[in-house]
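B., you asked whether I could sanity-check this one before it goes into the benchmark set. Here's the sequence:
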Amino acid sequence: MDYESFFQVLSRFIRDREGLYNDIQGEKNLKNYFVTSILATLLFGALYGASMGTYAGGAQIIFDAIKIPMLLLVAVFVSLPTYYVLNGILGGEMSLRQMAVLFMISITVMATMMIAFLPVTLFFMLTTPERTFAAYAFTVLLNVFFFGISGVTAVSYLLQGFSKIHGENKKWVPAMITGSGVLAFVGTQLAWVLRPYFHLSTTFIAPPSGNFYIAVIELIGRLLFGG
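And here's what the prediction gave me:
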């Protein structure tokens, strides 16, 4: 695949959803779409991760550039079987190949959204030189917010794809709701497991403890009320 076709396919993910969904429905160009999605997610995830790592600097830039693509890809492939089995049991009509491609394209859309937020992330990193707790908490919550918006965009893309490919058959809806919940919980907990992102650390990941939701609530509480 040359650079021109790579970026043409990426552009199609964003600008030609109807044509893309029609191709997936007809099982056309699935390999090309899948490979492009993997490469784009690795590239965009690494770029956004590197921008996160600039908060701590040093080796953390490299660590975060590895962690974010890992987070995106592991989360989708852990959640994919749940979607596929539920979809089949409840009467959905998508094959595993179709679903895998649609999932990967949706994750690529999420990674693309994150790249759109990258200048904002870098702006706040570079214009907030103080490394106080307030600055740290703001940086964490800003990135959680960006990941949240990007994730919602990916699920919306996935939802439209399911609807288009299944047509009049709406039996996939419960599978979509349940699978999206699984994807959200797997993604957020995996993000927590892969920490730290904003501390310079000699280890790639911190020892397991707690969970994402408790950590965010505690962080907001400390930011608002001290302690």
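One thing to flag: The chain has a mean pLDDT of 90. Otherwise nothing jumped out at me.
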